[in-house]
Structures are given as C-alpha cells and as structure tokens.
Specification:
There is one protein chain. The protein has about 210 residues and is of the alpha/beta class. The protein folds into two domains: about 5-95 and about 180-210, Periplasmic binding protein-like II (D-Maltodextrin-Binding Protein, domain 2); about 95-180, D-Maltodextrin-Binding Protein, domain 2, CATH 3.40.190. It contains eight helices and eleven strands. It has a six-stranded mixed beta sheet with strand order 2-3-1-4-11-5. The radius of gyration is 19 Å and the shape is elongated. Bound molecules: 1-O-pyrophosphono-5-O-phosphono-alpha-D-ribofuranose (PRP) and magnesium ion. The site of 1-O-pyrophosphono-5-O-phosphono-alpha-D-ribofuranose (PRP) has 11 residues, from strand 9 and helix 6. 1-O-pyrophosphono-5-O-phosphono-alpha-D-ribofuranose (PRP) binds near residues 142 and 160.
Length: about 210
Amino acid sequence: MSIHMALAKGRIAKTVMTYLQKSGYEFPTYSEDSRKLIFEDVGLTIKVTLVKSPDVAVYVERGAADIGVVGEDVLIEECSGADVYEILDLGIGCCRMAVAGIAGKKVDMTKRITVGTKYPRIARQYFENNHHSVDIIKLNGSVELAPIVGLSDVIVDIVETGNTLRANGLDVLQYFMDFSARMICNTVSFKLKIDEIQQLIHVIKRNNAEA
Ligand code: PRP
Ligand code: MG
C-alpha cells in the first residue's frame, strides 16, 4: 500500500527528502529548487506533497495525507485542536522561541510594549505568564523588520541558527521554549497503514543516528 506524506515546505521538507533519498527512495522529479509540489518514488511506495506548514495538520486530519511532518511550534500555535496522532519527535528542525529586540537597545519591560510575531498565541501566553502587559501585532513573516522600522518594540519568533537575527541587527532578550519537527498521523491511516508508517519511522531514526 502506498503512503502519502505531507511535508512542511522549507527546511523540514529538505531534510526529510534527503533522508528518504539516502535510504534508497528515488524521486526522479524532485529537486530542491523545483516548483513542483507532489512527488512519487519510483517504487510507488511513497507520495510526498509539499504544503505550507499550518496546512500539514489540515491535510492529515481530513485524510488527504496519511502522515505529515511539521514543526511543533506550528502545531502548538495553529493546530492545537486537530484530531491527529503525534507519533514521532524527529529530532530535526530544532529551534527555540525567543523574544528579540534591536541589539544594544534597552527595552523597558515595566511599560506596555508592542510585540510583532507570527505566533500570537504563544507570545500572549508567555507575556501573560510573566505578567507583562503587551500589544501583540500578528505578522505573517519577516518579523525581524518590525522593531527596525518602529512597528513594534520587540519580536517573538523562532531562532534556529540565529543568522536572521544577526543579519538584521537584532539580539535575543530571552529564550523561552524549545521545539522540534513532529510526525503526525491520520487516525484511520494509523490502523490501516501501520507497517508503512513504521518503515518510515525506521528510515528517519536510522538517518538521525547516522547524522
Ligand atoms: C524563520 C523564522 C526566523 C528564521 C530563523 O523565518 O521566522 O526568521 O527562520 O532561522 P535562523 O535562526 O536560522 O535564521 P522563515 O525563513 O521561515 O521566513 P518567514 O519568517 O518570513 O516566514
Ligand atoms: Mg522569519
């Protein structure tokens, strides 16, 4: 039986595709810079689709994909009610959520501050827990711009290598959560395709061990 896997576009998809290829799965039409969104291996055992990260759980919950791989940050922020099983911590795509601001510029946290972020739910929870009064501005990307152009005092965003913060003259004020990529599974597929799923889990674990 063929298995359909939805991958979050970007770094997670690149890593998982590399793992699959290293394990002998051949995807003749796949290349990192292709605009194609769906790939099948020559053995017709895996179909991979590349989707925007918040949509991975939508595809999996509705059975349009059997399994999905997506960042835990996105699952917490946007998919908390999804009826899917989380079956594996892939140990890849590791990143940390941080509050960041302009390097060297002091932020008075006793005053009400504005926060630019793609993660309003996670950010609100963090500042509430710390009794900080904030205005959250939901952005859809390139959030590092917000403090530079005066849209917000700080940002809340994920940091992986730190390159984006550095390139834009920002510094971490506080790290507060760790994330990694997770495999999620459709509840019916989990019963019907358990062998195929276990095979994929094996591929990922073996590649992680070798990495
Ligand atoms: C993500 C995130 C940070 C950056 C972190 O942005 O929002 O900007 O990656 O990675 P780094 O620490 O390795 O630089 P992404 O590239 O997904 O773009 P977007 O925010 O515009 O969606
Ligand atoms: Mg970004």
